[in-house]
Amino acid sequence: MNYDYNFCIHETSSFLMTKQIAFYFSEQKLNSSRMFNQKIILLLEGEIGSGKTAFTKGIAKQLKIKKNINSSTFILSKIYQGKYRRMHHLDLYRLSNVNKNHITHIIFQELLENLEDNDIVVVESSEKIGSFFSFWNFKINIDILNYTKRRIKIEYNKEIIDCF
């Protein structure tokens, strides 16, 4: 399948700004009436320390998740309950050769099949899984520009939503 993707670019100069952009993004897009009863797949890419977890924390704050969000690098997957939605937080940084690992594919397939209509899946280091997610709603790439500055590129499926 060929989807028509578009993108938005934001620059931040602090951890707090990254969280604020994610909060606004979640408020305007993930929790819009158009998206509210849909499963949402959000892929996050970027180097270690680029702000992927900060972005995830901003989404969690907007979803009214009470628990502290930490990088799940050593856990792989964690589920958080928000006020109205669940967020599945996956960090695939420590995985290697996932495309060759049939068991990992089965695990991800089972996750996707068991999602509820209102669930959000945030996948950090999604580049580790190659093309496993043949469809995604949003793909976010965070580039490190310098010690504090980041460039956040949010790609989205044009058929689903407009850029903010």
TrEMBL record:
GO MF term set: ATP binding; hydrolase activity; metal ion binding
Gene3D superfamilies, per the entry: P-loop containing nucleotide triphosphate hydrolases
Cell location: Cytoplasm
Keywords, in A-Z order: ATP-binding, Cytoplasm, Hydrolase, Magnesium, Metal-binding, Nucleotide-binding, tRNA processing
GO cellular component: cytoplasm
GO biological process terms held by the UniProt record: tRNA threonylcarbamoyladenosine modification
KW Acyltransferase (keyword) present: no
Keyword tRNA processing: yes
Main location: cytoplasm
PANTHER family: TRNA THREONYLCARBAMOYLADENOSINE BIOSYNTHESIS PROTEIN TSAE
Similarity comment text for this entry: Belongs to the TsaE family.
Name of the protein in question: tRNA threonylcarbamoyladenosine biosynthesis protein TsaE
Species this protein is from: Candidatus Phytoplasma pini
